[in-house]
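Sanity check

After download, print the first record. It should look like this:
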Amino acid sequence: MQIIRTAAEMQEISAHWQPTIKVGFIPTMGYLHAGHLSLISRAKEECDVVIVSIFVNPAQFGANEDLGNYPRDLDRDLSLMGPLNVDYVFFPTGEMMYPAGYKTWIEVKGISDILCGASRPGHFIGVATVVLKLVNIVRPTLMYMGEKDYQQVAVLETMLRDLNVPTTIVRCPIVREEDGLAMSSRNKYLDSDQRVQALCLANAIRLAQKQFLAGNHDPQSLIELMSDLIIGENGSIDYIRFVDPIDLADVQSIKSDTRIILAVYIGKTRLIDNSAVLA
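Expected structure tokens:
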């Protein structure tokens, strides 16, 4: 496992990828968990070379968000990746990614402005910009991303398609704890009581799925039931939506492939989750 700390060095390596070499890339913000490791494992199975980036991207955090507190532990991350035989770890600095005078930003209109984009203005501009920069540096064939960040994946797929970038996103299923909580680096913020309360996201999804199977296909009815469950666990709802799985537009009637997508605050920690209605 080789650690690369500069864009120039990473580009020197990636410039020599041969067309026949399949390069897998997993962009992360570090503080890895089993969800990240599942992406790496799949990339190792399917690719000739695997690169993981670790970069806590300041451009995707709002003024009052958790950039300063976001968990960081490079030694821990390298230890977790060691048994997986990652080929390269790209670990750039903020000054390298956004040097003085930086002026270029990527905006994917429409799909970036709803759901998390409405709650976190500018968030997906930061995400799209950093990912495009990373893809230009690494030049991967495939980029592996978890569906927990469902909207993010949709935004990035749109960006890559619209800009004719020859990298394909491989969508990978959400990895959950045994009790159903979607794995997230931000779960570290939860105390023991909040960790139990956080199960309300997965439980609300399961409630909606059961209601759908029982014949309730009305989004507003199910949103009310899910809201009651979450509020009963002291969760504060950012949004709950039933959306089209492609364009993420709200649906009027729920179908089997409709996506349930929600964001909830447990204390000060904002958690997201999603699932197909029929998973």
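If your output differs, re-run the checksum step. Summary of this record's structure: Residues 123-138 form the longest helix (16 residues).
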